Predict the structure of Secreted protein.
Amino acid sequence: MRTKLGSVLAATVLATGLGVAMAPSASAADNCWADGDGIRSWCRNVSGAPVYGYIGNNHIYPDPTKVVGHMYSNPSWFYCKLDGQAWVGGPHPTRWLLTVADNGKLGYMKDTAIYSETDPVRNC
């Protein structure tokens, strides 16, 4: 009985240790990369992430209550990034990125829906 219990515990510790060692970290994320024209950046993102509209006619204020589409492509392209907007959390807690949803609607994606490091994306 003691040998079986020891084997089960050893296997559990080994499996747990491998799971932790293999989990990617935020610091291991690759950077977004610029398009050849320098206008767009490509980033790896969550497939199916919502793209949010903007407040009123002013394109510089994302509206976190208004979903205008979704981004199913991955990687996806982004025009620019905005900091100091509505809270989204993550390493850049107030960052949103301007893009076009898969349905053709202009809008913003939350930085937390992007796996790549978004610092290289140009500012809006």
